[in-house]
Amino acid sequence: MKIAIAQLNPTIGDLPGNAQQILKSAMIAESQGVSVLLTPELSLCGYPPRDLLLNPGFIDAMERQLTELAQQLPSQLHVLVGTVQRNPQSHQGGKPLYNSMAGLTGGQVTQHFHKRLLPTYDVFDEHRYFEPHSQSHHFTVRDGVRTYRIGVTICEDIWNDEEFWSQRHYACNPLADLADAQVDLIVNLSASPYTVEKQQLRESMLSHAARRYQVPILYVNQVGGNDDLIFDGRSVAFNGDGHLVYRGPGCQTDFAQLELTETGLSQGKVVPLPDCREAEIWTALVLGVRDYVRKCGFSKVVLGLSGGIDSALVGAIAAEAVGAENVLGVLMSSPYTSEGSVTDAIALAKNLGIQTHHVYIEAAMTSFDKTLADLFAGTESGVAEENLQSRIRGTLLMAISNKLGHLLISTGNKSEMAVGYCTLYGDMDGGLAAIADVPKTQVYALCRWLNRRQSGVEVIPETIISKPPSAELKPNQTDQDSLPPYDELDDILHRFVEQHQSATEIVAAGYTRETVDRVIKLVSRAEFKRRQAAPGLKITDRAFGTGWRMPIACRRGDIR
Questions:
Q1: Cβ atoms 271, 206 nearer than 8 A
Q2: Which pLDDT score is estimated for 492?
Q3: What is the CATH number of the domain that holds 201?
Q4: 3-class secondary-structure state, position 467
């Protein structure tokens, strides 16, 4: 029996468009003699739909679209479509909806399979909308003389094997229940967000589960950027001995088919994983920018080019994502801007093939100084005046964005966002923060990798990589005037933000108490800035986005 995988890139809320993607895949499947077509979790509405699910009209529209799609599909094909179904018991206190996979065949919606395990950690908040189902289900497909029993799981349902994790996070294990039902195949329909090196974890977990239960597992994942989340696809299949027989491409749509026989799944293509961390991150960020621009209705982007490494990386990502001809880099020189920074920015733009425009902000700075002279009389020039430069630049970029209809991409990195080394209503301005989850040390690594990627072709000028980073808001300024060295800062931040280590634990790793306490204080004090920042593409396990929910007005106490 032939089973097809549709690794789709839905747009959240675009029910007709998403249905057309499914229908197109179904037509291909029929032409190839496929019996069953699998699509990702919530493939009809896109994941995560968030509070669209609170709108009854949206649920009604989804039900109508599902019925219409069923009537359009090839009648002999079994298609699993990610959707929601109303919970008939919600009046008894349950949530109003199920996160479901609908079985469509013969022109009708014939069956629903409901998600059992609902994640509430990190970016997930599924208990806000969905009722967990109490049972696992399977369906049967007859192919010739053989009837196959296919067990259905949805995303989190496979992430609870106590033998793999050494503990059980939920009360049940849907995989074990389906193995007890003696299914011939378990399919998992997912919308699993990308983080660095997560695919290796997925594959280890799925291989272990296939071996433990001695049943083939076919995992189908969504692909695409949806707001701050990136979905990398990389659908996979394992036989009952844990052997990998299929891996789809990362960060692009795909259609593939495998054959299920009495002995398991046939060998399919196995697309290699990226050969290094930087290649993986680059591909994800390019996808995230491309889809954010496209799905928000833009075609061109603008960014500030400072001659620094952060804007250089963002410029390179933007050029790859939307095409160099659709990127405008704006140089905004002040009296403190070095000649080298201007030269570096122009050289970068030439390497990337992007358009530039150069404006000078000294007159605007002077105007602000005059306007505020009476109020600021008797005070020394300092951070307020320095930040005015950044805010002038931010205002100019937003004006260009408004006038030309370009999406403004901000260029701040995770290290700066963490400790507040950024200016609200200044360099933080923008519709998307492309590298807000990329630590500074990783920014350098990505730029060096870009220059190695095409032998002999320098993308990021070496002078940008080698010079000390600086905001250039006053004479001879460098980042390290205000911050610890970035290799030290990033490790402290990784331990505190992502690994949840205490100050005492971080000090034990070799850092001074003074430095650790200072960094932690900076992270806490910058929360009000992050709350007002543009959405940032998530690539780590703990990003300053929808999964980071810290209070602004609070006292942390002595976290030792």
A1: no
A2: 97
A3: 3.60.110.10
A4: coil
Q: Which two tokens stand for residue 348?
A: 């970068």
pLDDT number for residue 526: 95
Whether 494 is covered by a domain: the verdict is no
The predicted pLDDT at position 559 comes to: 55
| Residue 439 and residue 542 in contact, taking contact as beta carbons nearer than 8 Å | no
User: Which segments of 203-296 are extended strands (E)?
Assistant: 217-221, 223-226, 229-232, 236-238, 244-247, 254-261, 264-265
For the residues 479-508, what does the mean pLDDT come to? Answer: 93
Residue 502 and residue 193: Cα distance in Å, rounded? 27
- Three-state helix/strand/coil letters over 98-143: EEEEEEEECCEEEEEEECCCCCCCCCCCHHHCECCCCCCEEEEEEE
Task: Give residue 554's Cα distance to chain centre.
Answer: 29
What pTM did the predictor assign? 0.95
- pLDDT at residue 560 in the model: 55
What are the pLDDT digits (tens) for 430-473? 999 999 999 999 999 999 999 999 777 899 999 999 998 887 67
Q: How far apart are CA 499 and CA 456, in angstroms?
A: 39
pLDDT at 64: 98
Residue ranges making up the domain that contains 314: 279-478
Let me know the angle formed at the C-alpha of 405 by 403 and 406, rounded to the nearest 5 degrees: 115
- Decide which of 244, 269, 294 is a domain's last residue: 269
| Residues labelled catalytic | 41, 115, 155
Q: Residue 330 pairs with which residues in a beta bridge?
A: 304, 357
CA pair distance 514, 100, nearest whole angstrom: 51
Distance CA 172, CA 176 (A): 9
Considering the domain architecture, whether residues 289 and 236 belong to the same structural domain is answered as no
Of 53, 12, 44, which Cα lies nearest the Cα of 224? 12
